[in-house]
Amino acid sequence: MSDITKQFTAINPADVPSKVLRSGDKLPTVGLGTFGSDRFTHDEVAAAVKDAIRLGYRHIDCAAVYGNEKQIGQAIKEVIDEGVCTREELFITGKVWNDRHREVEKACQESLDDLQLSYLDMYLIHWPFPNYHAPGCDGDARNPDSKPFSVDEFMDTWKQCEALVDAGKVRNIGTSNMTIAKFEKTLPLMKILPAVNEMEMHPCFQQQELFDYCMKKQIQPIGFMPIGSPTRPERDIAEGDAVDIQTPEIQAIAKARGVHPAVICIKWAIKNGQVTIPFSVHPAEYLSNLQSSFTDPLTDEEFASIKNCECGSRLVKGQVFLWEGAKHWKDLWDEDGVIAQ
Ligand SMILES: NC(=O)c1ccc[n+]([C@@H]2O[C@H](COP(=O)([O-])OP(=O)(O)OC[C@H]3O[C@@H](n4cnc5c(N)ncnc54)[C@H](OP(=O)(O)O)[C@@H]3O)[C@@H](O)[C@H]2O)c1
């Protein structure tokens, strides 16, 4: 018995509800986020992955740009060697970073090697354009090579993702940070449709229209920053950003139930029909997040009251991906239904 399972009671993964994807694969509704930013070392994140799997997590949200796939790969190997679970029982997501859109197979193979896996369960295009910025760069930094969204370039990247499915290296493919306008232009051109869209979603930024669109198209929404990333670094906080866990609605429900407001955010995501990928390296926190997927769901009244938290507070604005001549970070999000050029 590992130390962590002496301190905490593990959850039976069978108790965690799943969503069935268009491929028939099952995606557990709570996964562990792995972006440690500069707050946690790669080893700390990998240790969390290892203990989270020992405590019942089966879905891990990775990305090459997080810089920690080597450490996470070792963690996954160790839990499989220990007999905690088999490879097939895990759902591992990877993402191609913006500077690798012209060499997706190579990028994917590097992730597979780092993660010590022969296939990924899901591979996402992390952002729908190849605009690159150095990890950790200042929010006002601009890369002169950045360009507006191009249907042709995106479809070239998508076709490379489709080829990975055909080659058996990836079981499902999906998008991240897409908009309805970009889907409208690209879905008709795809051979394999996206299984998921990973998108920012939390009580203060519910993205109802995009969420409904994805559901209608059988694209399962995965919500990132489900707690509103309350302790993200200063440089990622803009004036006017809402703090989900401090809203009166979330606080009132948390107080009445005697739980942390973060737990209410997770329960909202689950009742809303999302898959959610909260991050934490603290076992009590990530265990309570997993538990929230199947215990004490929000009542209809509680769920309805959280509708009032919506205030359009997008936290990942993406301004570092803007091209010369772009006016505002809103140009990335096609809010008027037109792809900005
Ligand atoms: N596709 C994309 O473009 C994209 C973009 C952003 C994020 N993501 C993914 O989404 C994941 C989650 O985003 P995120 O980490 O920024 O934000 P988040 O999950 O909303 O917030 C994480 C923070 O919330 C706190 N927390 C978590 N569970 C808690 C609990 N039960 N009780 C109290 N506090 C709790 C922790 O703070 P402390 O550490 O202070 O305890 C943790 O650092 C990332 O790790 C990444 O995998 C994807």
Automatic annotation (TrEMBL):
Q: Name one GO molecular function term.
A: oxidoreductase activity
* Gene3D superfamilies xrefs: NADP-dependent oxidoreductase domain
**Which residues of the sequence carry a binding annotation for substrate?**
H126
- Annotated active site residues, numbered on this chain, are Y66 (proton donor)
A Pfam family of this chain:
Aldo_ket_red
Q: Which InterPro entries does the entry link to?
A: AKR, Aldo/ket_reductase_CS, NAD(P)_OxRdtase_dom_sf, NADP_OxRdtase_dom
| Boundaries of every NADP-dependent oxidoreductase domain copy | 30-309
In chain numbering, the residues marked as site (Lowers pKa of active site Tyr) are K95
* Protein name in the entry: 2,5-diketo-D-gluconic acid reductase A
